[in-house]
Amino acid sequence: xxxxxxxxxxxxxxxxxxxxxxxxxxxxxxxxxxxxxxxxxxxxxxxxxxxxxxxxxxxxxxxxxxxxxxxxxxxxxxxxxxxxxxxxxxxxxxxxxxxxxxxxxxxxxxxxxxxxxxxxxxxxxxxxxxxxxxxxxxxxxxxxxxxxxxxxxxxxxxxxxxxxxxxxxxxxxxxxxxxxxxxxxxxxxxxxxxxxxxxxxxxxxxxxxxxxxxxxxxxxxxxxxxxxxxxxxxxxxxxxxxxxxxxxxxxxxxxxxxxxxxxxxxxxxxxxxxxxxxxxxxxxxxxxxxxxxxxxxxxxxxxxxxxxxxxxxxxxxxxxxxxxxxxxxxxxxxxxxxxxxxxxxxxxxxxxxxxxxxxxxxxxxxxxxxxxxxxxxxxxxxxxxxxxxxxxxxxxxxxxxxxxxxxxxxxxxxxxxxxxxxxxxxxxxxxxxxxxxxxxxxxxxxxxxxxxxxxxxxxxxxxxxxxxxxxxxxxxxxxxxxxxxxxxxxxxxxxxxxxxxxxxxx
Length: 506
Hints:
Layout: E1 3-4, E2 27-34, H1 40-51, H2 56-64, H3 85-90, E3 97-102, E4 107-112, H4 120-127, E5 132-138, H5 145-157, E6 161-167, H6 176-190, E7 197-202, H7 226-230, E8 246-253, E9 259-264, E10 269-271, E11 275-278, E12 284-291, E13 299-301, E14 305-310, E15 321-324, E16 330-341, E17 353-356, E18 361-373, E19 380-382, E20 391-404, E21 415-420, E22 426-436, E23 447-449, H8 451-455, H9 466-485, E24 490-492
Helix pairs in contact: 4-5
């Protein structure tokens, strides 16, 4: 059987057996990626043609189009997937295309991502939604630089199941030795990453060989067809048993006594009576009510949108993360992480950047690029800058603390985005590999936005109540963002303990 049962790299963790609720009959989000002209659209088109319940008029449109798969008299199955006019004119996929189809046992959501290097940002966006990825290679070319880049991004965004589709086997006379050589290269590539499962399947998308049906053209292959394998892939797990994390999206008030922290449980579970801690302030309170639009609940778990009412008001607003006191994330001031640089503009240490977490936007005081991933050797080498599509290892100093987890521990609160402070454009996406509460010593030229400065000026109209304390924090953050956008390296002085009886600006 040509399946790779890959042993995780030493620092990687094996697939959890209890931390995720798995549904073998649930919806599976399937990403296709690979280099240009490797046949992604044709493969998915063939899968839709053979295995899904396409309407007859859709089939007839393809037949009547007159378009044929290159070198054959067969219909051009890629027409079922290429949705943009520009894609049809150029023959490539530019944007992410989403398609749905059902088999007798599952529903699949197909995310077809672009293969051209300049559209890597689109591929990274699609990968963040995927349960399993089909990484295509042309049997004539094998594993290429873009294949390595895509594998690295899959690892970066936490896709743990990968299928290497060795396509166009008909163009190499279905040669077993060609497939074995590519499979060996794939094995070496995957050893660099923490995939739980990786398999290689030889196929011809045009002729349907090993896509949804077995083929007599490759009798030496004893493994599963692509569809057989995909029907056994678990749907995306919800981290019911992970550490409880509740990123606050907003605070709800009814004008009377109700004050609820609204958001979606990103991992773990919470029930009435649990004691929770705001990670940034350290304040604690007990849950007295879990409210939803459909009524109150005794408990809530990952994926549920709820409003938590606490037994007393604490200074919490959007951007805060609630957790249990014995298992809370770090109130991080310094982060090390891995990022794929998405912007056409290269890294500029003087530019204004912000860090976006699941619900927070934090000024960045400094970014230090430490290394880049070499896509030929898959090893890192020291660097001080990066450009579009580079995968960088960076240290980030924050202007104020943020509630951030290490990605491998809690992916939902360990995923990060660097955005432009002026335009809000996405600059880089990545994950936190380590976090620390310790602040880096400010370098020369850093401006410290002190609370006394704010209390005597911008926030002089605010008092000690919880609503004004939230507003104080909001204004401080906005001031820091404006300064960072103007190119001023800025840090916000940490707040004093809440129960010290002092004015919030002192």
